[in-house]
Amino acid sequence: MIRSIWLVARREYLGYVSALGFWLGLILTPLGLAVGVLVPGMIMKAQPARYYAVVDTQDSLQEALDWQFESWQSSDTKMMLRQSLSTTSPAEKRRIINVFEKAYAEGSSPQEALDKADAPLHLKASPINFHPIKLPNKSVEEVEKILTSGQTFNGPVGRHTLFAAIIVNRDQIGNIASVDYISPDIVNSELKQAVTGALKYLARLELFKSVGVTPTEIRNADADIPSLFVRKPGSLEPNENQSSEVTLTDRAPFVAATSIAIALWLLIFSVVNFLLTGTIEERSNKIFDSLLTSVSVTDLLSGKLLGVLMLSATLLCAWMLMATWAALYADQAISPAAWEFAQAALDPALILPALAGFLAGYLLYGAVFLALGAMCDTIQEAQALATPLILLLTTPLFIIIMALQNPASGFVFIMSWVPPLTPFLMILRAPLEPPLIEVLGHLALMLVSTSIALWCSIRVYRAGAVNGFGVKEIVSFFKKKTMGKSKL
After folding, report:
1. What is the Cα 192 distance to its own chain's centre?
2. Transmembrane ranges (predicted)?
3. What is the C-alpha radius of gyration for the chain, rounded to an integer number of angstroms?
4. pLDDT of 51-92, one tens digit each?
5. How far apart are CA 382 and CA 391, in angstroms?
6. Which backbone phi and psi does 240 adopt, to 5 degrees?
7. N or C: which end of the chain has fewer CB within 10 A?
8. Is 235 helix (H, G, I), strand (E, B) or coil?
9. Residue 140, CB-side half-sphere exposure with 13 Å CA sphere
């Protein structure tokens, strides 16, 4: 029996490995993932400089916009500073961040505040991508003509076209009555958000001014706001009287759990498709008859599952070797904080549930697709049956996306006990360190549900492979039942 299963598994494995599609998937999948990870950051860093103009008889809105953009720059810079200090002691980290915040609140620019903070790494403040261009007071028609004509203007970052114009309409006493935002770009909303923030800032200034508070007094008050540090209980640092602040490294298990769950979903549904197409090809070409003269139906099904499982292991090992090589090659370019993040993400408490979830999910869905393939003579028949099934099986992906923000919710806990979702949601809940009884319950549920799926699949597989029972016979059966009832 074991020899028969091995021979079938070896036949399946060698058949897939020798195909060109396997090697394309082996190479293109990590490249696609790398592009998906790196390109968004590259796009954000490569955002073009944009010029805008404020057409107004006063300078208050322009000054408020300058404040808004500098405030965003300060927030982004402080976040970058916190990440760079992940390996610094809590006391030193507090000192550096306090110096940065106080320097900025006292009037320094974000870059000047960084220089005063004297961080261990030389950092540059986040750039501002929107720059004001002075336009004389023009009518709306003239401004729209400039926006659509492609006219360029000299500015702090070279010569560019006008991205947007902000027309300020004031009442008779000089207050802002309304603001028109005009731009040919209807997608980018960053500048619109800045205008909204600037208007709110002006409204607050007017309110403070009415009670005798000056902008200088407001900024001095901002300088006295205490810094906020998010800590986790316990884990006191040596020679320190407080525990370390929560960093991206502490969130690494949750990021890794989400990534692993999505990656396993993609991998499972990539390899089980091999089972479907391979089974249909063997049935349509009458290869089943030859195979079943040498092995039993159970051995044939088990061998197919083992062969594609070996294929999956080959893909995973190859991708892990590529990732290891890339990490060693980029060793000098990766910061210590990034290495800490990677080490926290590779926690055995995540890897072991991931392996168990993949094995259970693969066997469960693989058995379903094998049974489906054994009932179909053509790819068209399989597509007709697989379409509603695939729509149902995409549910785990939607649940994973919903569970990203709150994996500890009661809804996620309840859905984790639904067998088709258990392999994925068990991984998402692993960073929460669930009680042992929950872990054992999930493992028992996956074992029972996978066993039932395999048991049913063997019987459906036998009916399709040996007895030729398929989609046409099912349709004929229901037609007879329907026509019989209509005659009555």
Report:
1. 26
2. 20-43, 254-276, 305-330, 350-372, 384-404, 410-428, 440-461
3. 31
4. 999 988 888 999 999 989 998 988 888 888 887 776 677 777
5. 14
6. -125, 155
7. C
8. strand
9. 8
b/e per residue, 449-484, with b = 16+ CB within 10 A? bbeebbeebbebbbbbbeeebbbeeeeeeeeeeeee
Question: What pLDDT shows up at residue 25?
Answer: 72
Rounded CA-CA distance 457/308 in Å is 16
How far from chain centre, in Å, is Cα 255? 9
Backbone angles phi, psi at 52, to 5 degrees: -135, 160
Q: In terms of DSSP bridges, do strands 243-245 and 176-182 run parallel, antiparallel, or are they unpaired?
A: unpaired
Cα–Cα dist 25/49, whole Å? 38
**The Cα angle at residue 78 between residues 66 and 65, in degrees rounded to 5:** 10
The model's pLDDT over 461-483, given as tens digits with 9 standing for 90+, comes to 777 665 555 555 555 544 554 55
Domain boundaries, the chain: 2-34+249-487, 50-245
81 contact partners, CB below 8 Å, separation of at least 6: 96, 97, 100, 114, 117, 119, 123
The SS3 call for residue 181 is strand
154: alpha, beta or left, given left = phi > 0 and alpha = psi -120 to 50?
A: beta
104 burial type by CB count under 10 A (0-12 exposed, 13-18 middle, 19+ buried) = buried
Extract the tokens encoding 232.
């986790």
Structural tokens at position 342: 């990677």
For residue 217, what are its two tokens?
């007094």
CA distances from 333 to 79, 131, 300, 328 (A): 20, 32, 49, 10
Inter-helix orientation angle 422-429/395-402, to 10°: 20
Eight-class DSSP state of 209: H
